[in-house]
């Protein structure tokens, strides 16, 4: 399965990916596939390298070993120019939104259009307003990023991510730190965009309920390995103790509550 | 002992690695300048924040440095009965040395530190990485316009510093201490040489502008993406710029005015 070209239904396939930071192995020969047109979630506790995985897919980081194939192209063998061409077809929503703080909402969404297309001013205006309308923020076009709430900033970043009509969007922790209303809005938006624009969505998250609600397929990562994968139903009924602990949020289980330490009593009375 | 050697080796390696990254960064930036010329709007915005906003600090400092020169120069020169040459002394010190050097030190503190903090924070808030993911090269879009703005502003600010300094010297020397106005200006005009004095001063400030912009932007770009990292990078910009300016000033002066 390693050498064969991935089938066309997979937009991203990762094969035997190994990546380490310093001495810590973040990924240890993991393989996973992301189906075209579906919402795939990659879950795991903080520090399992979920964001790192997205950066690897986007070609911002280089793996120690293994291949990442995006839309039939091996990301890390591409020349810079081809990588940039590929990136125009990938949107990424950063956790912080990553909006440019010195230009307005409108200019932020217009930025990729102005840089990568030769459209005239009125076309760009129309497109930007359409994208902002899709996320419900057409009225906020003249605000500066600092004037937006966290949820709004994320929606603007989403409008910017879909500005070039990409084939897929990667969401980095889209649900973290959102109030219930913005949370509901985002969940609805991600699902709607995926279905109406024919996108592929990759969601990296540790928010179990929201993610399970919209994902078509879930990978659960733990300690550099894929601990379990399947449809939300299969994951819920997984017999892996680790996956069960993660889904239910138990304090103790295969992942211990206590950070490894010497004997408690000895430590106190030494 | 082995520990010490290990540390020494590691420090050497990391500093060379950083130097290497710095050179790649510079080359990448210089190439990026070509695309800035296609988007002059990006440049004007930076010229404003890097250059125009440094205007006040440069003018006020220039005025005071000129006034001090006028005062000190007058006391020393009047001992020899040569207070008529005050204009020459004030102008030559400013145009040759103090203009480029002090303006560069102030520029590093005012604009260089701001550039480092801005770029470092953009990195920490993932704005740079976000641009990369949008297939927009942050070096072209963010770094190159700032570099060009710093490079262009520095000589102009240094010239402004010297010009205002000369007026400051005149206010004190002519206005307060009674040096003859005509002598102040005519001695200056007849003694100062365009190529030897003014051009050399401009060359110095061009070199300083280049180096400060490079250091400030690279430190920001290379900063650890945390609050502590940005704060350290900002400090490094000011300290390293100051050392580099003073060191380069010595070398340039030796090359320009020494008979080597």
Q: Give the low-pLDDT segments of chain B.
A: none
Largest interface, per-chain counts? Answer: A-B, 24 and 14 residues
- From the N-terminal CA to the C-terminal CA of chain B, the straight-line distance is 43 Å
Described by strand count, sense and barrel closure, the largest sheet of chain B is: none
Overall body shape of chain A: globular
H/E element string of chain B? HHHHHHHHH
Strand content of chain A: 15-25%
Largest sheet features of chain A: 6 strands, mixed
> Over the alpha carbons, how many angstroms does the gyration radius of chain A reach?
20 Å
Secondary-structure-based class of chain A equals: alpha/beta
Shape of chain B: elongated
List the helices and strands and how they pair.
The complex is a heterodimer of chains A (270) and B (260).
Chain A: E1 10-21, E2 24-35, E3 39-43, H1 50-57, E4 65-70, E5 73-74, H2 80-87, E6 90-93, H3 105-116, H4 121-134, H5 150-161, E7 168-172, H6 180-196, E8 200-205, H7 208-214, E9 217-222, E10 225-230, H8 232-236, H9 241-248, H10 264-268
Parallel strand pairs in A: 3-8, 3-9, 6-7, 7-8
Antiparallel strand pairs in A: 1-2, 1-4, 4-5, 9-10
Chain B: H1 2-38, H2 40-51, H3 55-79, H4 86-124, H5 127-133, H6 138-176, H7 181-191, H8 194-222, H9 227-257
Helix pairs in contact in B: 1-6, 2-6, 3-4, 3-6, 4-6, 4-7, 4-8, 4-9, 6-8, 8-9
Report on the structure:
The complex is a heterodimer of chains A (270) and B (260). Chain A is an alpha/beta fold and 270 residues long. Helix content of chain A is 36%, strand content 24%. Chain A contains 10 helices and 10 strands. Chain A has helices at residues 50-57, 80-87, 105-116, 121-134, 150-161, 180-196, 208-214, 232-236, 241-248, 264-268; strands spanning 10-21, 24-35, 39-43, 65-70, 73-74, 90-93, 168-172, 200-205, 217-222, 225-230. Chain A has a 6-stranded mixed β-sheet, with helices on both faces. In chain A, strands 2-1-4-5 form a 4-stranded antiparallel β-sheet, with no helix packed on it. The longest helix of chain A has 17 residues, at 180-196. Chain A is globular, with a radius of gyration of 20 Å. With 260 residues, chain B is an all-alpha fold. Chain B has one domain. Chain B has helices at residues 2-38, 40-51, 55-79, 86-124, 127-133, 138-176, 181-191, 194-222, 227-257. The longest helix of chain B has 39 residues, at 86-124. The mean pLDDT of chain B is 92. Chains A and B meet through helix 2, strand 6 and helix 3 of A and helix 5 of B.
């Amino acid at each position: 399965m390693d050498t064969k070209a991935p089938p066309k239904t997979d937009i991203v396939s990762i094969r035997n990916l190994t990546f380490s930071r310093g001495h810590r192995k973040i990924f240890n020969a993991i393989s996973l596939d992301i189906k075209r047109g579906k919402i795939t979630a990659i879950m795991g506790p903080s520090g399992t390298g979920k964001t790192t995985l997205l950066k690897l897919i986007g070609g911002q980081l280089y793996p120690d070993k293994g291949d990442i194939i995006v839309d039939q192209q091996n990301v890390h063998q591409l020349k810079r120019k081809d990588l940039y061409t590929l990136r125009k077809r990938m949107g990424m929503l950063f956790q912080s939104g990553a909006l440019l703080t010195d230009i307005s909402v409108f200019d932020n969404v217009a930025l990729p259009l102005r840089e990568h297309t030769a459209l005239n001013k009125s076309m760009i205006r129309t497109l930007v307003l359409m994208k902002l309308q899709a996320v419900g923020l057409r009225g906020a076009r003249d605000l500066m990023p600092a004037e937006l709430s966290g949820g709004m900033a994320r929606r603007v970043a989403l409008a910017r991510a879909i500005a070039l009509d990409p084939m897929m969007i990667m969401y980095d922790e889209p649900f973290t730190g959102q109030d219930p209303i913005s949370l509901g809005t985002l969940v609805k938006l991600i699902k709607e965009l995926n279905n109406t624009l024919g996108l592929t969505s990759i969601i990296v998250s540790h928010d179990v309920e929201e993610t399970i609600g919209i994902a078509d397929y879930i990978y659960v990562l733990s300690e550099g390995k894929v601990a379990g994968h399947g449809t939300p139903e299969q994951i819920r009924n997984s017999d892996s103790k680790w996956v069960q602990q993660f889904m239910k949020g138990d304090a103790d289980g295969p992942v211990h509550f206590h950070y490894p330490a010497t004997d408690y009593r000895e430590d106190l009375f030494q | 002992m082995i520990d010490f050697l290990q540390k020494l080796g590691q420090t050497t390696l990391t500093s060379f690695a950083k130097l290497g990254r710095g050179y790649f960064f510079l080359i990448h930036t210089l190439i990026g300048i070509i695309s800035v010329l296609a988007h002059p709007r990006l440049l004007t915005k930076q010229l404003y924040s890097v250059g125009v906003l440094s205007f006040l600090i440069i003018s006020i400092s220039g005025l005071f440095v000129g006034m001090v020169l006028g005062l000190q120069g007058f006391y020393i020169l009047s001992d020899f009965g040569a207070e008529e040459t005050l204009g020459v002394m004030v102008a030559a010190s400013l145009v040759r040395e103090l203009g480029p050097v002090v303006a560069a030190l102030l520029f590093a503190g005012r604009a260089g530190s701001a550039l480092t903090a801005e770029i470092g924070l953009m990195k920490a808030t993932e704005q740079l990485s976000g641009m990369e993911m949008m297939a927009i090269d942050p070096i072209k879009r963010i770094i190159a316009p700032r570099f060009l703005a710093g490079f262009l502003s520095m000589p102009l600010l240094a010239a402004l510093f010297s010009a205002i300094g000369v007026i400051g010297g005149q206010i004190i020397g002519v206005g307060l201490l009674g040096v003859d106005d005509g002598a102040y200006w005519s001695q200056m005009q007849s003694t100062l040489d365009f190529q030897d004095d003014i051009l050399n001063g401009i060359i110095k400030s061009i070199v300083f502008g280049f180096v400060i912009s490079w250091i400030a932007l690279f430190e920001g770009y290379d900063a650890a993406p945390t609050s502590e990292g940005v704060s350290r990078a900002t400090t490094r910009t000011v300290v390293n710029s100051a050392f580099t300016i003073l060191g380069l000033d010595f070398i340039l002066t030796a090359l320009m005015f020494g008979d080597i």
